[in-house]
Amino acid sequence: MACAIEHAQFNFVAVACACAVVRDREGRPADVTPFAMGAAAACLPSLPDVIEPALHPNHRKFFHSVTVFAALGYGLHRLYQWETEDDWQRLARMVGLIAGAAYLAHLTRDAFTAKSLPLI
Length: 120
Ligand SMILES: [Zn+2]
Fold this sequence. Notes:
Elements: H1 4-25, H2 33-42, H3 47-51, H4 66-81, H5 87-111
């Protein structure tokens, strides 16, 4: 099992890189946004383990599954496409994207362990 510090490091790198790639594809100029997004995601290293605590090696159930990974990925895509109209919506969108990306990064790191992720 990966520990919280390892998850935080992975979250930082994965989310910062993903954010940088998305911003580059959109033609936005390089700035500190990917680092800020990565740092924020690193502050939420173990969201799936809050729901399913890592008390034993077989703790990964539904909320650590490939099914949740796919559904959350689709939800993040929809959230990313949300055209916000005011500051509160932009804040909600940003918080959702950071928390969702942190959750996905955690599952991605868990997928590359010996136990991997269950399908359901
Ligand atoms: Zn986990």
